[in-house]
Amino acid sequence: MEKKEVSNELQELLQTLEQQTNWDGLPLVKYDAFWLPDIALRPILSAQKYFKAKDSDIILASIPKSGTTWLKALVFSIANRNVISIDQSPLLTSNPHTVVPYLEFNLYSYQENPNLQDLPSPRIFATHMPFKMLPDSIRESECKIIYVCRNPLDQFVSHRHFWLENKIEKVAVPLDIDAAFDLFCQGIHHFGPLWDHTLGYWNAGLKNPQKVLFLRYEDLKEDITPHVKKIAEFIGSPFSPEEEKQGVVDQISRLCSIENLRNLEVNKNGYILDVLKNSSFFRKGEVGDWINHLTPAMAERVKDLMASKFDGSGLTFKI
Ligand code: A3P
């Protein structure tokens, strides 16, 4: 019954929405001013309709290829450190995306209205939804949101490698990098425009810093230690002096490092959602890799776009 209602709504809605094809051939649909992979629309509508946030929930938000995998590993480890010892961590045997599910690609994709009530607290969920698209109860409850973003040039390059590696639309011929970059600059990519996605969480964090923690991938790379502590404080579970003395912060940082995760057997083989290679989530993990793939003119175009889109917001990226 519920499923039928959403299907009818979806059918009607789809007829009113603009559609596009991503550079890799994946269909995109424009909903609420953002370009969504079409497979995400129905689960997002379901999550908006049914998801009930608890005050103890932690929501990890990002645009794809901004450090989501890292954030999932870190927050899971920090939040569960008193329940699961580091040498027993599920991250040693499961990919971070298996440990922390997405609302739209896992939970509400498999079922219209999954029963999430009995999951142990704190429940940790991830999403690529823009801030304004989040289920109301996420914004209205006391739950915490942690957003990670990344400089747009590295995000674009990372995204391109990821989808060339995990070619889903087997028959589609991917557009060349110039055409793909042009679409990116127009905001036509998964969960784009990136500027609006990032600004949504940036502004929410400025308005309510207790609610939204805004992180940059580059800052995490520069020094992970203060960020592990910051995340712990933000979720209301600061490290005790004893824990610091025992080196728990360093243990978590090491566990979640790309060097450690990419060398685990589980992340060398196998697939997420049957189609995404576990290994493809751990490519270089560097800041500034764009320089090996994009021209100075492309970088200038993004700098100009950022200058106009972020004007007056206080949001900046080092390029
Ligand atoms: P690159 O493609 O530039 O290497 P997401 O997790 O949002 O899908 O983002 C993937 C990007 O984060 C990839 O960037 C990947 O290598 C990097 N990454 C994954 N795990 C990481 C970790 N533990 N530490 C740092 N970077 C990581």
Automatic annotation (TrEMBL):
<comment type="similarity">
    <text>Belongs to the sulfotransferase 1 family.</text>
</comment>
<dbReference type="GO" id="GO:0008146">
    <property type="term" value="F:sulfotransferase activity"/>
</dbReference>
<dbReference type="InterPro" id="IPR027417">
    <property type="entry name" value="P-loop_NTPase"/>
</dbReference>
<keyword id="KW-0808">Transferase</keyword>
<dbReference type="InterPro" id="IPR000863">
    <property type="entry name" value="Sulfotransferase_dom"/>
</dbReference>
<dbReference type="Pfam" id="PF00685">
    <property type="entry name" value="Sulfotransfer_1"/>
</dbReference>
<protein>
    <recommendedName>
        <fullName>Sulfotransferase</fullName>
        <ecNumber>2.8.2.-</ecNumber>
    </recommendedName>
</protein>
<feature type="domain" description="Sulfotransferase">
    <location>
        <begin position="55"/>
        <end position="314"/>
    </location>
</feature>
